[in-house]
Each structure stands twice: as structure tokens, then as C-alpha cells.
Amino acid sequence: MKNNIFFSTILAVVFLLLPLSLSAMEYQHTLEVRDMQFSWTIEEDQIHVELSAKTTGWVGIGFDPEKAMSGANIIIGAVKNGKFKIEDHYADRKRGHSNDEKLGGKNDVLDPSGTEVDGVTTISFSLPLNTGDTYDKPINPEGTTRIMLAYGAGKDSFRNRHPYRTVYEINLSTGENKKIK
Ligand code: HEM
Predict the structure, then answer these.
(1) Residue 174 — pLDDT band, cuts 50, 70, 90?
(2) Average pLDDT over the chain, rounded to whole?
(3) Rg of the chain, C-alpha, whole Å
(4) Ligand 1 atom 27: residue of nearest CA
(5) How do 110-117 and 36-43 pair as beta strands?
(6) Atom of ligand 1 nearest to the CA of 76
(7) Could you tell me if the CB of 89 is within 6 A of ligand 1?
(8) Is the per-residue pLDDT at 3 higher than 90?
(9) DSSP letter, residue 154
(10) 107-157, pLDDT tens digit by residue?
């Protein structure tokens, strides 16, 4: 009898802790910036990303911008009434971006998902490191990659500007990073 209680207790503890340890192990790297978090894992020819920010508007990441925002491959997402929307965009100008599909490219976002809880919007998705799309650029996991992070406020519209944006240089394999802007 005593043994049964002992083993049931052990089992209950394992099952309670398992989800915690799995979610903690989910991403290899995390970068915390003001009110915003970027977590990622490079796995074979893909990058798995989770982005979250203290906003009920959109959250976005841009890979490899050239002048201001232009040239960046942007993934932007928002959650409204429990439904998420995540799109593959390209910064076709210094201060804005367009949907790849509207420009003649394609949506390369894999396994999209999103939640909004207590004023925090979180999206996750995977992306091939080299999509082959004209409106994306290959991501080199070994060297440094320039990464823009930004979030919108209030409205979910992707046309809404950002109250916060930043640029980092990150080695996506090691997690080493430096704030640029
Ligand atoms: C339609 C939505 C957007 C609009 C209208 C917009 C507009 C602008 C404008 C006017 C600037 C110049 C002023 C400033 O520095 O704040 C700017 C800069 C910037 N934006 Fe956006 N933006 C949008 C979306 C995004 C997204 C989705 C990201 C990132 C994923 C982003 C990242 C940045 C960054 C990093 C800068 C600073 C660039 C630099 O100074 O080098 N923006 N944006």
C-alpha cells in the first residue's frame, strides 16, 4: 500500500514537471529586449522562432535589413479574438513592407501559431534557411545576421507603425549578439 502511494506520487511529480522541462528546452537561444523576447533554434535547414511582446498589436522580426528597414525578410503576426495571422513580408522600402505574395513571391512560413494572453502576444513559426524566394534571403546560421525586432501597439493592422523597434547582430548558431540600434 505504502509502495503504491510512493510510486503514484513519483508518477504525479514526473507528469507535472514534464511539460515544464519540455517548454524550457524548446528553444536553444533567447534574446530579451525591452518588453520583447526572441527565442530560436537552428535545426538542420530550418530556423524555429518564437517571438513575444507586451502588446495586443503585431509582433515582427526582420532578417538582414540593408537601409533602415529595406531589404529585410519580415515575418509579422498578430492575434485577434483568439485567431492568429502570420505573414511573410518583404521590406520593399525604407519605412514599410509588403506581403511577399502581393509582390509575386510566396509565403514560406511553416507551422505558424499564435496566442494573446494578458496583453502579451506570442507567435511561433519555422522558416527554411534558404527559401529560394526572390523576396527572402538565405539565412546564414554560421556568420552574423542582422535582425530587426519590433512590435505594434493596440491595433492588429500590419500597417500600424511600431512604438518599439531595435536592431541586433546575432550569430544564430552560438547566440552571441550585439545591439546595433
Ligand atoms: C507597416 C508597418 C511599419 C511601418 C509603417 C514602419 C515605419 C517605419 C518608419 C517611419 C521608420 C523610421 C522612423 C523610426 O526609426 O522609427 C521605421 C524604422 C524602423 N523599422 Fe519600421 N515600420 C513598420 C514595420 C516594421 C516591422 C514589422 C519591423 C521589424 C520586424 C520594423 C523595424 C524597423 C526598424 C528596426 C527601424 C529602424 C531602422 C533603422 O533606423 O536602421 N518596422 N519604420
Answers:
(1) very high
(2) 91
(3) 19
(4) 60
(5) unpaired
(6) 27
(7) no
(8) no
(9) S
(10) 999 999 999 999 999 999 999 999 999 999 999 999 999 999 999 998 889
Ligand 1, atom 41: nearest CA belongs to which residue?
68
Distance (Å, whole) CA 172 – CA 112: 20
Predicted local confidence at residue 148, as pLDDT: 98
Could you tell me the three cell numbers for 132?
529560394
Which of these, 54, 67, 30, 11, lies nearest to 163 by C-alpha position?
A: 54
Residues paired with 60 in a beta bridge: 76, 150
- Ligand 1 atom closest to the CA of 67, numbered from 1: 41
Gap between the Cα atoms of 98 and 95, Å rounded? 11
Residue 76 three-state SS: strand
- Ligand 1 closest atom vs CA 62: 30
Domains along the chain with CATH numbers: 29-179 (2.60.40.1210)
Cell numbers that stand for 87 in this block = 505573414
Beta carbons of 12 and 142 less than 8 angstroms apart: no
In this structure, the number of other CB atoms found within 10 A of the CB of residue 45 comes to 10
